[in-house]
Write a structure and sequence with these properties.
It is a single chain. This protein is an all-alpha fold. It is built from 14 helices and no strands. Helix content is 73%, strand content 0%.
């Protein structure tokens, strides 16, 4: 079974174009204000007569709690991405290439976190760690992120694998390659778009998640979104805007890296 690729050259109506541009402007419009606020010398205004400053970025990096939260978020995101990909890849292969009783139920259960609000998932995770006396902390947050991001990783892999021709792998085996060698050298390179898409979704979601992480943090372990919320609750200055600007730059860097390594067209086709 082959999946038809998206035809990016097909013309669209003027109404769709206008609607798409309006949606894009609505989504991106707050970003310049965040950047301007992060550069402002005035705590309460976007523009200041004194000009612009980088002091809020310096204050962010000098804040020990922000740095600890950043380290936790990066570690949680990295572990979540690797583990979710390691689980999702074989699951996608089994789901696409094999038919067995309970397959649809398995896929429905894996996709269930997408249908449940993050607050409900966070409450359930908190109840679990409380009842089992595990307690909140780094590893409970990591496990919760893996469970929550697994369907986000699985979907592009299933879509990618569904569009591949299994006869190519069979041909490699007929030419003398072992099953593992045929899969590793023929199928895995073609899974690159799905792996990159799934890994990106997992990393970004784990890095940015608040609704689940807020229930599982404690005094010694917190994440960047939770720490930012605690900061703006008590202090009103552009330090969090500086943090958000850095995350915007990180997002732009991820997009550029995807374009360089894979190409956005292939990435979007798998997404």
């Amino acid at each position: 079974m082959t999946r038809r690729a998206i035809d990016h050259t097909r013309p669209v109506s003027a109404v769709v174009t206008v609607w798409g541009l309006a949606t894009l402007v609505f989504v991106l419009l707050p970003l310049p204000f965040i950047v301007l606020y992060a550069l402002s010398r005035n705590n309460y205004a976007l523009f200041s007569a004194q000009g612009f400053t980088l002091q809020w970025f310096q204050r962010f990096f000098e804040n020990d709690r922000f740095m600890a939260a950043l380290q936790n978020s990066l570690a949680i995101s990295a572990i979540t991405t690797v583990v979710a990909l390691a689980i999702a890849a074989p699951t996608a292969i089994v789901a696409v290439r094999h038919r067995f009783p309970g397959r649809d139920l398995m896929m429905a259960l894996i996709s269930a976190p997408l249908l449940v609000p993050g607050v409900i998932s966070g409450t359930a995770a908190l109840s679990f760690v409380a009842q089992t006396r595990i307690g909140p902390g780094f590893w409970p947050i990591t496990v919760a992120m893996i469970c929550f991001t697994l369907p986000l990783v699985l979907r592009p892999l299933v879509a990618n694998l569904s569009g591949l021709d299994p006869d190519l792998e069979k041909a490699a085996r007929n030419l003398g390659a072992s099953p593992f060698a045929a899969f590793w050298r023929v199928t895995m390179p073609q899974l690159a778009p799905g792996l990159v898409a799934g890994g990106t979704f997992a990393f970004v979601e784990a890095m940015d998640n608040f609704s689940i992480a807020v229930f599982l943090t404690n005094i010694s372990t917190t994440t960047l979104p939770v720490e930012a919320y605690s900061y703006i609750r008590d202090i009103d200055d552009p330090t969090v805007a500086a943090m958000a600007t850095l995350l915007i730059l990180l997002s732009i860097g991820v997009v550029l890296a995807i374009e360089w390594l894979l190409g956005l067209d292939r990435f979007l086709d798998m997404s």
